[in-house]
Amino acid sequence: MVGRWADTEEEKAADLHRKREKEEKKRRKVEKQSREQKEAYDAAELVEGKSDSTREKLPTDLPALTLEEGRKTILLRHVASEWGPCRHVDNFERLNHIEEGSYGWVSRARELGTGDVVALKKLKMDGTEASGFPVTGLREIQCLMQARHRHIVDLREIVVGSRLTEVYLVMDFLEHDLKALQEDMSEPFMPSEIKTLLIQLTSAVDFLHSQWILHRDLKTSNILMNNRGEIKIADFGMARQFGDPLPKMTQLVVTLWYRAPELLLGAERYSTPIDMWSIGCIFGELLTREPLLQGKNEVEQLSKVFELCGIPTEDSWPGFKRLPNARSLRLPPLRHNIGPVVRVRFPFLTSAGSSLLTSLLSLDPRKRPSAHEMLNHPYFAEDPKPKSTSMFPTFPSKAGQEKRRRVASPNAPRRGVAPSISASTDFSGIFTSRDAEATGPGFQLRMM
Ligand SMILES: Nc1ncnc2c1ncn2[C@@H]1O[C@H](COP(=O)(O)OP(=O)(O)OP(=O)(O)O)[C@@H](O)[C@H]1O
Ligand SMILES: [Mg+2]
Fold first, then answer.
1. E strands along 229-318, which residues?
2. Does 236 contact ligand 1 (Cβ within 6 A)?
């Protein structure tokens, strides 16, 4: 009896030991996989920032690696289990062209089998077949697969054409994008509508950030809207996953007018606040129908940012001087009125509204609210309350008939070398117009 008891105990202990070993092995394998995936991401990111002449060439830049090892390092992994063979694009009838962007051509199409109207985005393949599948396309697919949310455009499937370079994303079709729509509207959205739009946008961004995804190109033309007042974020060509600790990433992201100051100043480690800055720019644009900060180049963009949001100081943005492009900026003397003037620029906003906008446009990324914090901001709780989407007006769809009309605006950045802001860049004169002004809380005095 005693012997049998002892045997069973031993067996149990051995079983337990085997089980633990197995679990440990599994854990190590998962850890190794995620480490490899992260390294692959970082390597691909650096390729992107390094040169326009694509991934194939990178391994030769790395003397310590053989070509084969180099290729392995920049391989991006996919959630492959969810993929089967892709259908042919012939299953769709092209209805009309909508838009050519930096990374693809988008058209409206009908699925022959179901009659569903969809959007087809044909990925641009960097010009030549030899350069392989573009990293922006891979990221777009991977992030869209992961980002299933009611306010993020639904990726239905990937279809292919007859040639290797023909890869299409099939997405739900939405009638408008916020940029083209605003250009056609005679008045800006009403405050209650702006709140609804911002809540939808921010809830999608909150979800993305919780999934460790940065969008990195939030702007009104990448926000789609249907005729039921619902918006969905699109264009994940610049999106990528990030982690903790933050990896080094390229600064060549986000369309210039929506680009955060830390990116303009060359930060290589940045995080979710860059998307929150873009939301601030979108908020300002919704209020006036005009893009908020329209610089012609990086230097002018930065100067417009400083004019609106103030000059960075060690108090307002501790450590900004250590950013690569900040070291030798010539900034105005501190006797100038150097604070933000968001409140003055939007005098019709309530104080809760302008405090939200001012905080989104904080120069110091740490001072911007997270998407989650933004959703709980008092601005959304005060009157007028956010309008129900069912009460939104409907607008005639431009995408239904022809190419969407657009006032010229900058494209998403292309891969390549980020322009550095030169050592002699002089911002000292940008506040001369403020010299004769004194600003008080919520109003402005001009000395006559
Ligand atoms: N699902 C969709 N339904 C309707 N229109 C869409 C859809 N997806 C994209 N579009 C339209 O096509 C335009 C370009 O699409 P998208 O932004 O994905 O391409 P892109 O090449 O990455 O553009 P860019 O780099 O210039 O921002 C959008 O601004 C929008 O007007
Ligand atoms: Mg776009």
1. 231-233, 240-241
2. no
User: Cis peptide leading into 384, omega within 30 of 0?
Assistant: yes
pLDDT by 10-residue block (mean), the chain, 448 residues? 55 83 80 66 52 35 40 51 81 93 89 97 73 82 96 97 92 96 93 98 98 98 95 96 94 96 96 98 97 96 95 92 88 73 94 97 98 98 96 77 64 70 65 48 32
233 lines ligand 1 (CB under 6 A): no
Q: Does the beta carbon of 412 sit less than 6 angstroms from any atom of ligand 1? A: yes
Q: Delineate the domains of the chain, giving CATH numbers in brackets.
A: 94-171 (3.30.200.20), 177-431 (1.10.510.10)
Cross-strand bridge partners of residue 152: 233
Helical packing angle, 2-50 and 135-146, nearest 10°: 130
Exposed / middle / buried, residue 166 (Cβ in 10 Å: 0-12, 13-18, 19+): middle
Nearest CA residue ID for atom 23, ligand 1? 101
| Cis amide prior to 332 (ω within 30 degrees) | no
- Spatial separation of the C-alpha atoms in residues 258 and 275, rounded to whole Å: 9
Which tokens in the block code for residue 285?
Answer: 């644009």
Give me the residues near ligand 2 (ion), CB cutoff below 5 Å: 101, 222, 235
Residue with tokens 């001369």: 432
286-303 b/e with 16+ CB inside 10 Å = b? bbebebbbebeebbebbb
Determine whether the shortest distance from the Cβ of 404 to ligand 1 is under 6 A: yes
26-32 long-range contacts, CB within 8 A, separation 24+: none
Taking CA atoms only, the protein residue closest to ligand 1 atom 14 is: 101
Close Cβ partners of 439 (under 8 Å, ≥ 6 residues apart): 337, 339, 341, 344, 445
Nearest-atom number in ligand 1 for the CA of 232 is 1
